[in-house]
Design brief:
3 domains, Rossmann fold, about 15% strand, Beta Polymerase, domain 2, alpha/beta, four-stranded antiparallel β-sheet
Amino acid sequence: MNIVNIGINHKTAPVEIREQIAIDTERASRIFAFFKKTSSIRELFLLSTCNRVEIVFTTDSTELSRNAVVSLMCEMGKIPEPDLLPLTYTLQDMDAVRHIFRVASGLDSLVVGEPQILGQIKQAYLVSVQHRATGVILNRLLHRTFHVAKRVRSETGISESAVSISYAAVQLAKKIFHTLEDKSILLIGAGEMAELTARHLMANGIKSLSVANRTFDRALDIARQFGGDAISMEEIGYQLESGVDIVISSTASPGYIITADKVRPCLRKRRNRPLFLIDIAVPRDIDPEVNNISNVYVYDIDDLKGVVQFNMAQRQKEALKAERIVSEETIRFEKWLKTLDIVPTLVSLKQKAEDIVRTELKRSRHALGNLTPEQQASVETLVRSVTEKILNDPFLFLKRQSIRSDITTCLDFTRKLFNLDNEDNGET
C-alpha cells in the first residue's frame, strides 16, 4: 500500500491556476463520490487553501490512481492535462509523509512559520473523516501531523518573530509600551495595510481605536469593523493633544501629514506622555524631524523592513531545528508503517493458537472429569496463559524485524514454520 500526494502550490503554479483547481464544498463532494467508486484508492484526504491544493490517498495501484486523480483535477479546473501536469508534484510514501509534516509546521508556507495552515489542515481532516474517506493509515498520518506541528511550535521559535510590515509595527509598539491593553490608537489611512494593522492591534486588546481618512465613509467602514471611532483628518491635531498613545499612518498623501510643528504644541497638554508614531506610507506621512522631539518615537517603513528581515533570518534559523523534528517524526512514522506488514501474520498466528486451544480443551473435557465452572475457567486461563507466553517471543522477533528489508522473507518463513496457510491448521 502506497501513500501518494498529488498537488500544486504557490511554488509550482500561479494564483490563477490555483483558483481554477481550488476545492470548494461542491467539488469536495464530487471528489469523495469519485473516491467511493474508485476501487484502487483506499483512503483519501483533501487540502485546499489559497496557496495549495493537495489530494493525499493510499493505493495499491499507484500509476492507475495517479492518472485518475490528475484527470479529475483537469476536468474540475477545465485545464488540459498537458498544461496542468508540469505545474503539479507527485510525492510518494515517505516523501509524501515528510511533505505533510513540513506543510503543517509552516516550513512550506509562503511566509515560513505562519500558524494558520495547521488549523486549515485540521478542518480539512474533519471533512474527510465526515465523508468516511480516511482509514488506518491516513488517520495515523494526520494525527502524527498534528503532533509534529505541535512539537515544532513548542520546541522552536519559528512562529515568534514578526515577518509582515503591519505585524512588525504592532510588535514595535509592544516593545515601547510593554502592553497595549490600556493604549489608545490613531490609525491614519484606511487601505489594506491599515486594515491589517488594525486587525493585529485588536488582537492585542487595545483600549480604543480611532480612524482618520480623507474619504470619511471609508474611515467609518474600518471603524465599525473594529468597534472604533471615525474622525476627520482635521481632528488629528486634537487627537495628538488628547493623549493618543500610538499613531500608525498609511496614506497615499504626497506630503507630510504630521510635522514637527504640529507635534511640539501637543506635548505640554500630553504632560510628557510618550508618543509612538509608525509611518508605513511611501512616500512618508510623518516628517523625520518629529523623531528629534523628546519623548516622541518615529519608525518608518525602512525601519520596519529591517525588523522583518532580521526576524525572517531568525525564523530560518529556527526552521533548521524544525526540519530535524520533521526528519525524526518521518522515521518514526516509517517504522510504524512497516509494522503493518506483519499484522496479518500476527493475527493468523494468534488465531491459530486460539483455534488449537479451543479444540484441545474440547477434546480434554471428558478426561478432566466433572469440573466446576470455576475449575473449568482456571484450566482455560492456564492454557491461554501458556500459549501467550510461547507466542510472545515470535511476536517480538517479527516486530523487531519489521523495519528490515528482508521482512518478507521472515514472514514467509514464519507462515511456513507455523503452517498458517493450511486451511485446516486449526485441527493439526
